[in-house]
Amino acid sequence: MTALITGASSGIGFELAGICAARGHDLVLVARREGTLLDLARTLTREHGVRAEAIAADLSHPDVAAAVVDRTSALGLDVDILVNNAGFGLYGPFSETSLDTEVEMIQLNITSLTALTKLLLPGMLERRAGRILNVASTASFFPGPLMAVYYATKAYVLSFSEAISNELEGTGVTVTALCPGPTASGFQAAANLEESKLFAGKTLPSSAEVAAFGYDAMMKGTPVAVHGFANRLLVQAPRLAPRASIRKVVRSFQEKRQD
Question: What's the pLDDT at 201?
């Protein structure tokens, strides 16, 4: 089996690459940083004896997903496992944040994820075997003041994954939406979130822990996998509390901690 993993150079994607290699899966590693990817591919090949190919690509730009699929086909590889992990966030009031950055976020978090799934799914269906893991978030369940576009993109990932999971029942192909809460990774630094009350001063689960949970859920074909007991309780809140209250609570956690 061959696994294509986006965002493989760090965080959850990096850990998933190691897990897949340890289980004997060949790999197509996709991320922007070519040097890091090549080092990872060589390491995983040496340690686990798998074939690991590196494709440096920026999926925040249009048409790059199709180019990645074309390159994978040129390498003679059929993708049996697709891990749509690449994504980023942006912190701040929507009226003040960068439109260009948010358009790139939508392209990466939504459009490229959808395109890779669309382009690789037919081969899985033909072989009647495949696993798709889309990395969503506990943010998928909530509106997100101060990260409005990011939360909205993750809501799309969850809804899209659940819908096609249902469509694919009985085909041999499954889709899993992995919904981690705050995780120890480079995400919060990139999104300028380190001082928000959601992250500051908290002990967070590791990327390795979340990746192992996500891999197991994917292989079981679990449609929605929320990591952590507390998070599984948390995501029930929109069913129990008024929407206005939910918006205010999320806003309070997003705000920067006052020293």
Answer: 56
